[in-house]
Amino acid sequence: MHSHDLDISINKISKIEGHADLDIKIRDGEVVDVDLRVMENMRFFNQAVKGADWNSVPQLTSRICGTCSIAHMTACIEAVEKTLNIKPTEQTMRMRKLTMHSLMIRDHALHLYFFSLPDLFGVDSALDLAESHKDLINDSLHIKAAGNNLSKLIAGRSVHAIYEQVGGFSAVPDMEKIPAMIEELKSIREMVLKLCDIYYECDWKLERKTDFVAIKTEDFSYLEGNIVSSSGAEVAEADFWDHLHDVVIPYSQAKGFKFEGHEYMVGSLPRLNLNKEAMHANTKKDAKKYLDVFPSINIYHNNLAQALETLHSVDHSIELLQNFEFKKEEPVKPETLTGEGVGVIEAPRGSLYYWLGIDEGKVRYTNLVIPTAQNLINLREDLRQMVHEKLNDGEEVIKKEAEKIIRAYDPCMSCASHFLRVNWDVK
Fold first, then answer.
1. Cβ(253)–Cβ(40) under 8 Å?
2. What proportions of the chain, in percent to the nearest 5, are helix, strand and coil?
3. What's residue 59's pLDDT?
């Protein structure tokens, strides 16, 4: 096969957010081009929020994504608070951590069970596992339900949460419901450990050295901490943009990014590579065998990393809910209504960056850096290596491997179990 010229076109892929195309050009047995074109609908959020009130912009930006609305809201809230010198209380930070854990539990479960697991079992859809692996479908629904219920208890809703706001929460959890929530979280632990074992036993492998970037936190809570990289960099959140370089991808409507001049990866795999020692003690005890895999340069271990983060989020949430009485608090007021600030959190798919400028209470400027955009160049290079390695294995193998690699990143623009149709033109 390597002696042929080959053009592979993957067109109009359905996504949660927009569409993407993949074109691969092979000449004389060499991979010449790998063009991953994100063809998302233009929504102009940077412009749409200009002039919005400081306390309303988080709800607006949460509409960027239904799946990750909590992440966008939380990152925007942090940016507003840094801009206006608002220091949230200990209770607010506890509730914010719980809100992020709820997102991780349900979002990772969605990806691992419904988008990735069918590849592992060689079927088109999770529905095809309903009879042969009924236990896994049952587990997936229970884990997702627990994440949703935790979101509802803490933030009011699982999508576009209504309680979380700048300076605090507008309501606190019903203390009478907390024991049942703790029991529900405990009930899914074994299910999550089973999921960890499934991805631990998975023998998929694509290794390529790259830079991994993530926030390093004291308790693996996805919120506050310096941004670190596997190449040794350590950057304060406020200085993140100074180390980023946006890259125009001429064939794509989504730009890419480089960190200190080279491609890099954000997401669960980088977080485990850089910060696994901060995971909950119960997670480290019961999942030691799985954690010993990291650090890893195998892109497919991003799936295992997501399963481990799910377990950590369960364990940390149980701790945060226990032995604490949530009391109604008034939101902390801003010290100023003019300034600039940066909020960086770890969304399910990686570091999410918000930079805001506010003048007299109105948004003047926004700059958003989305995890999937940060991963685009690294994903392209992984695809390039895979095609080079699989040139002699046939069209169907390359097609399946491309799907698996893209899904391993869990990108927002590629969240369908049925990924794409490949058109082959062998000359």
1. yes
2. 45, 20, 35
3. 84
Question: Position of tokens 């000359």?
Answer: 427
**Which residues have C-beta within 8 Å of that of residue 57, sequence separation ≥ 6?**
49, 76, 80, 356, 363, 366
Of the chain, the percentage scoring pLDDT greater than 90 comes to: 58
Both tokens of 307, joined, read 């399963």
Window from 88-92, 168-172, 239-243 with minimum mean pLDDT: 239-243
How many C-beta neighbours within 10 Å does residue 413 have?
22
Judged by DSSP in three states, 290 sits in helix
Q: Where are the domains of the chain?
A: 6-42+387-415+422-426, 45-374
Look up residue 10 and give its two tokens: 């993957």
Region 45-374: CATH code = 1.10.645.10
CA nearest neighbour of 305 among 185, 196, 144: 196
Q: Is the pLDDT of residue 397 over 90?
A: no
Q: What is the mean pLDDT of residues 296-311?
A: 98
CA quadruple 173, 176, 180, 186: dihedral sign: positive
Where residue 214 falls among pLDDT bands split at 50, 70, 90? very high
The dihedrals phi and psi of 244, each to the nearest 5 degrees, come to -100, 150
Q: How far apart are the first and last CA of the chain?
A: 11
Rounded to whole angstroms, how far apart are CA atoms 151 and 203?
A: 34
Question: What does the CA dihedral 22, 26, 31, 36 come to, rounded to 10 degrees?
Answer: -10
In this predicted structure, what is the pLDDT of residue 75?
A: 94
pLDDT given at position 256: 66
Write out pLDDT tens, residues 60-77. Answer: 788 777 778 899 999 999
- Helical H segments across 127-211, by residue range: 134-155, 178-187, 189-201
What does 249-311 look like in DSSP terms, one character per residue?
-TT-SS-EEEETTB-EE-SHHHHHHHHGGGS-HHHHHHTHHHHTT-S--BTTHHHHHHHHHHH
- In this model, does residue 373 exceed pLDDT 60? yes
CA 78 to chain centre: 18
pLDDT attached to residue 179? 97
Model's pTM, two decimal places? Answer: 0.90
Burial of 68 (0-12, 13-18, 19+ CB in 10 A): buried
